[in-house]
TrEMBL record:
<keyword id="KW-0812">Transmembrane</keyword>
<feature type="transmembrane region" description="Helical">
    <location>
        <begin position="20"/>
        <end position="41"/>
    </location>
</feature>
<feature type="domain" description="ABC-2 type transporter transmembrane">
    <location>
        <begin position="19"/>
        <end position="363"/>
    </location>
</feature>
<dbReference type="GO" id="GO:0016020">
    <property type="term" value="C:membrane"/>
</dbReference>
<feature type="transmembrane region" description="Helical">
    <location>
        <begin position="173"/>
        <end position="198"/>
    </location>
</feature>
<dbReference type="InterPro" id="IPR013525">
    <property type="entry name" value="ABC2_TM"/>
</dbReference>
<feature type="transmembrane region" description="Helical">
    <location>
        <begin position="252"/>
        <end position="275"/>
    </location>
</feature>
<dbReference type="InterPro" id="IPR052902">
    <property type="entry name" value="ABC-2_transporter"/>
</dbReference>
<keyword id="KW-0472">Membrane</keyword>
<keyword id="KW-1133">Transmembrane helix</keyword>
<feature type="transmembrane region" description="Helical">
    <location>
        <begin position="287"/>
        <end position="305"/>
    </location>
</feature>
<feature type="transmembrane region" description="Helical">
    <location>
        <begin position="218"/>
        <end position="240"/>
    </location>
</feature>
<protein>
    <submittedName>
        <fullName>ABC transporter permease</fullName>
    </submittedName>
</protein>
<dbReference type="Pfam" id="PF12698">
    <property type="entry name" value="ABC2_membrane_3"/>
</dbReference>
<feature type="transmembrane region" description="Helical">
    <location>
        <begin position="342"/>
        <end position="363"/>
    </location>
</feature>
<dbReference type="GO" id="GO:0140359">
    <property type="term" value="F:ABC-type transporter activity"/>
</dbReference>
């Protein structure tokens, strides 16, 4: 049995076309993702704001105290002369200028997230000022209590993701690429399965006419594709983690590797099932498998993020039987949400899909008869 497995592995590794699409192409794809998306999330993330304040009016002390109440990491305030402030705004050293005259105003050079936040800061101050003025005019006895309440105001909303990790939308492409690599591992088991069938391969005809038991050929086909596919997943994960550094698997390697084991098992079973379809040629079966793998990967957000969510809204059951979507969801549950229940569900669904496909392939191969060969 070990000799048969070794032979299958050697033959599969020598398939240059299969090795390119199952190993080299995924590496090239994630490299392209790295240069296309790398740094986008960091550049869009909100960093500390910088604002210049030009003091010239009655409002300067009160407004200055209001600005100083902000954490310096979130809002850095520079008190400058008018000409210095305008020069700083022009060269981008500050995001806006607050002019503290009889009325407080904001001047910006362009529109964006930073400028919108500065405008909200100013609006919040003006609303509080208006409220305090109204209370002083109509209910002066409550002014002190109202000022204490406004001074102690804090937002009760804190925006985080589950697991306290940042959700980078570009990561979905890397998760889908990992899922696609698992799916492409089905090519290897398909080639191995075709190779042991007497009606599709001369080598299979010789093996069928010999003394090798059929179960050994079936098992060798599965293990060949499974071992090689898992090895390619290891190479891809190492490349993403250590070379590109686009994903961080630290502390989750065990769960990630288990996803690779179960995911490549499901893909290998798909390859075996495809390899046993009728008496089609190897090229025809390869074409069927390419289309199937790419469609399933597309529905797992490989080409466009949001497709998987669209399917989840319209046809959630399909995401439970799509191996690529299950692999992607399992990665999300480990690296983003830290949802053990969802992770276990994805693995069980993957194992179930793989078991069904494997049973179909085994039953199909057991029914094959070659008396006319």
């Amino acid at each position: 049995m070990l000799r048969i497995l070794k032979t299958h592995l050697t033959v599969s590794i020598r398939e240059k076309t299969a090795m390119f699409w199952t190993l080299a192409f995924p590496l090239l794809l994630v490299t392209m993702y790295h240069f296309a998306f790398g740094g986008i999330y960091e550049s869009d993330r909100m960093h500390g704001l910088k604002a210049a304040v030009v003091q010239d009016g009655e409002q300067q002390e009160a407004f200055a105290g209001y600005l100083d109440s902000f954490d310096e990491e979130n809002l850095k305030v520079l008190y400058l002369q008018e000409e210095e402030a305008k020069e700083a705004l022009k060269d981008g050293s500050v995001d806006g200028i607050f002019f503290c005259a009889d009325e407080i105003s904001l001047t910006v050079e362009e529109t964006g997230i930073s400028q919108s936040i500065l405008q909200q800061i100013l609006d919040s101050y003006l609303k509080s000022q208006y409220m305090a003025g109204g209370i002083a005019a109509h209910h002066p006895e409550n002014l002190e209590k109202a000022m204490e309440t406004m001074a102690g105001y804090e937002s009760g909303v804190r925006q985080v993701t589950m697991g306290m990790k940042d959700l980078d939308q570009t990561q979905s492409y890397f998760y889908a690429a990992i899922a696609m690599t698992c799916m492409f591992g089905s090519f290897l088991s398909m080639y191995a399965t075709v190779g042991v069938q007497a009606n599709t391969s001369p080598l299979g005809a010789r093996m069928a006419s010999g003394c090798m038991k059929r179960w050994k050929g079936i098992l060798a086909s599965l293990l060949t594709g499974w071992i090689l596919a898992f090895g390619e997943i290891l190479i891809l994960l190492f490349y993403i983690q250590m070379v590109l550094k686009d994903l961080d698997f630290r502390g989750a390697w065990g769960k990630i590797l288990l996803i690779g084991v179960v995911g490549t098992f499901a893909a290998s079973s798909l390859g075996m099932a495809t390899g046993t379809i009728g008496k089609f040629s190897e090229n025809t079966k390869n074409g069927i498998l390419v289309c199937t793998s790419l469609v399933l990967s597309f529905l797992a957000d490989l080409m466009n993020t949001g497709v998987k969510y669209f399917v989840e809204q319209r046809l959630p059951f399909f995401n439970r039987i799509n191996p690529a979507a299950l692999i992607s969801d399992a990665l999300y549950s480990v690296l983003i949400y830290e949802d053990g229940e969802r992770y276990l569900r994805c693995l069980l669904c993957l194992a179930g899909v793989g078991a069904v496909l494997l049973c179909a392939a085994v039953l199909s191969m057991r029914r094959m008869r070659y008396d006319s060969i």
